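Changelog note: in this version the structure field was regenerated for every chain. One regenerated record is shown below for reference.
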Amino acid sequence: MTSAHSSDGNRQPNREVTGVGGNGIAMLFLLLINLLASGGAILLLLADPSGGLVIINGLLLFSFLFILSGFYSLQPNEAAAITLFGQYKGTDRPNGLRWTWPWMGKKKISLRANNLISQQIKVNDLRGNPIEIAAQLVWRVTDSAQALFDVEDYRGFVTAQVEVAVRTIGARYPYDDFEHKEVTLRGDHERVSGELRTELIERLAVAGITVDECGFTHLAYAPEIAGAMLRRQQAAAVVAARETLVSGAVGMVEMALAQLSGKDVVVLDDERKAAMVSNLMVVLCGERDTQPVLNTGSLYQ
């Protein structure tokens, strides 16, 4: 099948079809018969060098070379695209010794899985922060005709499209969200990796290539803002810890006042409650151990 152009000028992609290759074992057996016949013809020619034997011997030699030039072999997970004077005729996939007409061209292509780790590239995330990203993917050829005839270099095509896809996904989400309300590159690895795989499959479909798995191998802020972002993360962590600490302390103070009032341990007016709340908050929220102070007088002195 060759590439064609429709009436609106859009190029139609090549599609893989079954090739014209045949089993080479049968042709190898025929080659051996030809070889034995050629040997016998040579012996007869030496005994009686007549013109007829010369012609027969020449035909046997020609057929020997004709059969020999049609052999080729395919390893497991390897295919051969068969062409005739540049026209695609089909793809031969069965492995082993194969044979086709000598005038048919054969372009071999690997169908094995390939692993690719992209280079680290700098991308601006959704908030405009520069980040560094590198991705790893496992890809393989599914359509040999598209890989060989629809792109110039399918391996180089994969490398280029990986960079474009990584830039697209990297700019779609923020690197991190301190409030944990958004999808982020760092916090939602499985979801982002799934979207990267979908993006790559769509981009590589034109080359007859699919992606089995992919993910990020490197994800970090760019060096020029890494220090500032680290301080920001530390500050956010401190604020979050303080919020949790204060919330817990308030709950404990409320519980203490409720139990004191409920069990009639002591009757506190508003000023005494305020003093107790102040002391309890200092004890519960302070970073250092508190030192008790004994008041020998009344609370109002």
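Spot check on this record: The helical segments are 24-47, 51-68, 144-149, 154-170, 189-204, 223-262, 270-285. The chain has seven helices and twelve strands.
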